[in-house]
C-alpha cells in the first residue's frame, strides 16, 4: 500500500452556498467532528500538502488541523456572484507544486484513507496525456473526488477566462481517464437534511 506521498497535494473546496442544506455543510458535526475537519484529516493522511479553498478562512481556521493551509478565495475581477467550484479549484491549484492533486468536496462523509491511498497508486500508471483521473457515473464525471494533473492549470484558466464555469463542460474538452472504483458509497455527498438522516441510519 502507498503511504502519504510526496507526489500528491490535496485541495478541499469549502466555498459553496449550502443552499439545499440550509446551513453551512462544512460546519455540520458528525460524531462531534465538523465535516470539513473530517475531510481534512483524511486528506492529510493521503497528501503531503493540504489546501482548503474558501472565501471565509476565518470561519474555519479554528477547526482545521494545523497542517492544513487555508487559501482565501478572491472574486474574479468585475464579478460579484458566487463563482462556483471550478474557479475555487483553479485558485487552489495555483500554489500546488506536486504533479498531481487530489480534489475533494467538503461534503464527503464516507471518505476512507486506505481507499484513497489505493486510488493514488494508479497515478503513476496513468497515460501521459490525461489531465485527470476521475470516477464516472451515469451522467458524467465525478469531479470533486478524484485526481488532476497540476499541468491542467493553464487550460483551466483559459476556460474560465472565456466564461466557462462547468466542470463537466471543461472535462468534456480534454482526455480524462476513468478511475475504477469498487464501492461507490465513498462518493456519497451530503447535500440535504435528508442526506444527513440517511447517513445517520448507515452508522
Ligand atoms: N471554494 C469554493 N468551493 C465551492 C464553491 N461552490 C461550491 N463549492 C464547494 O464544492 C463542493 C460541492 O458543492 P455542492 O455540493 O454543490 O454544494 P453547495 O454549492 O455548497 O450547495 P448548494 O447550494 O446546495 O448547491 C462543496 O465542497 C462546496 O463547498 C465556490 O464558489 N468556491
Ligand atoms: Mg455536494
From TrEMBL:
Short name of one Pfam family: NTP_transf_3
Binding-site residues, Mg(2+): 107
Subcellular localization, as worded in the UniProt entry: Cytoplasm
Its EC number(s): 2.7.7.77
Domain called MobA-like NTP transferase: residue spans: 10-174
One GO cellular component, as annotated: cytoplasm
Keyword Cytoplasm part of the UniProt annotation: yes
GO biological process, one term: Mo-molybdopterin cofactor biosynthetic process
Keyword terms, alphabetized: Cytoplasm, GTP-binding, Magnesium, Metal-binding, Molybdenum cofactor biosynthesis, Nucleotide-binding, Nucleotidyltransferase, Transferase
Reactions listed under catalytic activity: Mo-molybdopterin + GTP + H(+) = Mo-molybdopterin guanine dinucleotide + diphosphate
Binding site for GTP: 13-15, 25, 107
Predominant localisation class: cytoplasm
Single GO term (MF): GTP binding
CC cofactor: Mg(2+)
Enzyme class, broadest EC rank: transferase
Similarity comment text for this entry: Belongs to the MobA family.
Record's comment describing the protein's domains: The N-terminal domain determines nucleotide recognition and specific binding, while the C-terminal domain determines the specific binding to the target protein.
Function: Transfers a GMP moiety from GTP to Mo-molybdopterin (Mo-MPT) cofactor (Moco or molybdenum cofactor) to form Mo-molybdopterin guanine dinucleotide (Mo-MGD) cofactor.
UniProt name for this protein: Probable molybdenum cofactor guanylyltransferase
Gene this protein is translated from: mobA
Amino acid at each position: 500500500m502507498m503511504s502519504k506521498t510526496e507526489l500528491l497535494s490535496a485541495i478541499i473546496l469549502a466555498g459553496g452556498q449550502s443552499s439545499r442544506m440550509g446551513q453551512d455543510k462544512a460546519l455540520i458535526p458528525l460524531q462531534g467532528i465538523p465535516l470539513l475537519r473530517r475531510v481534512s484529516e483524511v486528506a492529510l493522511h493521503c497528501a503531503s500538502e493540504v489546501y482548503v479553498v474558501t472565501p471565509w478562512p476565518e470561519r474555519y481556521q479554528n477547526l482545521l488541523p494545523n497542517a492544513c493551509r487555508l487559501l482565501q478565495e478572491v472574486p474574479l475581477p468585475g464579478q460579484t456572484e458566487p463563482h462556483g467550484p471550478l474557479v475555487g479549484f483553479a485558485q487552489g491549484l495555483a500554489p500546488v507544486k506536486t504533479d498531481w492533486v487530489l480534489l475533494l468536496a467538503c461534503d464527503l462523509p464516507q471518505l476512507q484513507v486506505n481507499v484513497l491511498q489505493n486510488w493514488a497508486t494508479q497515478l503513476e500508471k496513468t497515460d501521459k496525456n490525461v489531465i485527470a483521473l476521475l470516477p464516472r457515473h451515469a451522467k458524467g464525471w465525478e469531479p470533486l473526488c478524484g485526481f488532476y494533473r497540476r499541468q491542467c492549470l493553464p487550460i483551466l484558466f483559459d476556460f474560465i477566462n472565456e466564461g466557462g464555469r462547468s466542470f463537466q463542460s471543461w472535462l468534456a474538452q480534454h482526455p480524462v481517464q476513468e478511475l475504477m472504483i469498487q464501492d461507490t458509497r465513498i462518493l456519497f455527498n451530503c447535500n440535504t437534511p435528508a442526506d444527513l438522516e440517511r447517513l445517520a441510519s448507515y452508522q
